[in-house]
Amino acid sequence: MDVSTFTARRRSLPADGGEIAYTEFGDAGAPAALFVHGLATGGLMWRHVIEQLSGTTRCIAIDLPAHGGTPARADMSVAAMAEVLAELCGGLGLGKVDLVGNDTGGAICQIFAARYPGGLRSLTLTNCDTDGNFPPPEFAPMVELARQGKLAEGFAGVAAGPASRAAGPLAGLYNDPATVPDEVWREYYGGGLDRARDVERMIAALDPADLTAATPGLRALRVPTLIVWGTAEESNFGVKWAYQLRELIPGARDVIEVDGAKLLFPEERPGDLVPHLREFWGR
Questions:
Q1: What is the reported pTM?
Q2: Angle at the Cα of 72 from the Cα atoms of 84 and 134, rounded to 5 degrees
Q3: Phi, psi angle pair for 254, to nearest 5°
Q4: Is the bond preceding residue 250 a cis peptide, omega within 30 degrees?
Q5: How far is CA 238 from its chain centroid?
Q6: I want to staple 123 with a disulfide (CB 3.0 to 4.6 A). Which of 58, 79, 114, 225 is the partner?
């Protein structure tokens, strides 16, 4: 699915904390799946997965605050982001959802699952933060720069041109960043310095305590849980963290390892996720 096809379906839901942008494909009467992205990308990263699943599923990709079409909020913590998911689910009347998360979005999904287990039909986690690895140690210098207010200008500067975008901070999250269309880079890096400062605030707000607080709820979570993990992220999201999640969540099934895949494999290699979702959901 190309970028314009995806963004043409973007809508905005009024909510108490501010508008929430989301993009929806599929039959409104089908079971709903909610897809949650991580830092500095957007709902757009799920476009290829959604294209393949929308024939049997009501697919909804949220834009978290300060990403895509959603404005920033006063509270940019991941705990607050979990409440944004709850606002979207309630506002759209989704009932139980199949929740799917990647990167920081996976941490947000874990917090949501711990707080609102009755709102889930299932949970799927791809490479993401976990208790004890939030944020990953190699990301800590970026968090410190964000807290010092020294990250936004550099991030905004990446939007200067195609060459700099393809070599920017997101490039290392793909196996082959050269194949990412320029309009995708524009979507992720766009918004200028103000948007970059909002993302900086979210990075600065990353707090291990938010995910630790979700651990008791996850220990009691018997919702069917699928874990699909790329193996090429040993420095940040190594496979050992996938198995820690499996041991933590009673409803978790076996870990599915995606050989050689990096963090954003759901966008780059949707064929390594979609068949597992279809089998897991039974549709």
A1: 0.96
A2: 65
A3: -60, 150
A4: no
A5: 17
A6: 225
Q: How many alpha carbons lie under 13 Å from residue 169 in its C-beta half-sphere?
A: 17
CA distance 198 to 224: 34
What tens digit of pLDDT does each residue of 159-215 get?
656 655 666 778 889 999 989 998 998 899 888 889 999 999 999 999 999 999 999
Q: How far apart are CA 275 and CA 283, in angstroms?
A: 10
The closest of 151, 87, 130 to 241, measured between CA atoms, is: 130
Q: Where are the domains of the chain?
A: 3-133+209-281
- Spell out where the chain has E strands: 10-13, 20-25, 32-36, 58-62, 97-103, 120-128, 225-230, 252-258
Report the distance separating Cα 123 and Cα 129, nearest Å. 15
For residues 28-45, one letter each, b for 16 or more C-beta atoms within 10 angstroms of the residue's C-beta and e for the rest, the string is eeebbbbbbbbbbbbbbb
CA–CA distance, 177 with 175 (Å, rounded to integer): 6
CB 133, CB 106: distance < 8 Å: no
Q: Distances from the Cα of 273 to the Cαs of 48, 127, 139, in angstroms?
A: 10, 12, 25
Fill in the DSSP letter of residue 270: G
Closest C-alpha to 27, from 53, 4, 2, 3: 53
Token code pair at residue 237: 């999201």
pLDDT one-digit tens code per residue, 20-78? 999 999 999 999 999 999 999 999 999 999 999 999 999 999 999 999 999 999 999 99
d(CA 163, CA 178): 9
Residue type, 247: E
Encoding tokens for residue 258? 């995606």
- Please give the Cα distance from 198 to 156 (Å, whole number): 11
Which residue is listed with tokens 């200067």?
Answer: 160
